[in-house]
Amino acid sequence: AGSLRGLLRKGCRLLQLPLAGSRLCLYEDGTELTESYFRALPPQTELVLLGPGESWRGCASDIERLLAAFCSQQGAVVEAARRLLTDERAPHRQKLLADLIHNLSENILAEDKEDDKKWFEGLESRFKNKSSYLRHSCESRMRGYMREVTGFISNVHPSARDAYRAIIDLMADKLKSGKYNGCYFDRREKEEAARLCTAEGWFSCQVP
């Protein structure tokens, strides 16, 4: 289909759903599609057609109970995830479960290098704990974004380049004053609202 509306119409006709109130979302995380989002999707993206009143939270919702039991029943969680991975044929769900098993099998709560040497393999010796490395990683990513934004200036119309540079300068100053938002990835950050992860280091999907 060449448009979201066209695909929605075809899907409703095929599944005998009413067009009014029906909508399409991503299979992976349940993000509801807009026309512009639909046009930007890569080929072979898996979608879910929802009828009026139906909801879909994404394939990750199938393993929420595993995450909820993590702290108290880690061994049981890993075994349950392995069984589900064996039985489940959906490739996206398999990847999520494989990642979950890998993460739960690691010594996640350990912070210092001496307590989890395997985690630090391949990293520079200056990093003595996980939070310092993740903070550095976030700062590096922010600097990379700024380089991309700065490099885009050649695509800006000449009449708008001065204003674009001024905006870039403001953004750069803001990032520098906030130490490039390294706190986003630092699970030891005391201010909960300043980080994107939990105190254990888990990240959750940030889309609506």
Concise synopsis of the structure shown:
This protein has 208 residues and is mainly α. The chain has helices at 4-15, 35-39, 64-68, 74-87, 91-105, 130-151, 161-177; strands at residues 23-26, 47-50. The protein folds into 3 domains: 4-57, Ubiquitin-like (UB roll) (Roll); 61-105, no CATH class; 113-194, no CATH class.
What's the helix and strand layout?
Layout: H1 4-15, E1 23-26, H2 35-39, E2 47-50, H3 64-68, H4 74-87, H5 91-105, H6 130-151, H7 161-177
Antiparallel strand pairs: 1-2
Features:
single chain, flat, two-stranded antiparallel ribbon, mainly alpha, 208 residues, Ubiquitin-like (UB roll)
Detailed description of the structure:
The protein has 7 helices and 2 strands. With 208 residues, it is mostly helical. It has 3 domains: 4-57, Ubiquitin-like (UB roll) (Roll), CATH 3.10.20.10; 61-105, no CATH class; 113-194, no CATH class. The chain has a two-stranded antiparallel sheet. It starts with a helix and ends in a 31-residue tail after the last helix. The model has no long low-confidence stretch (mean pLDDT 84).
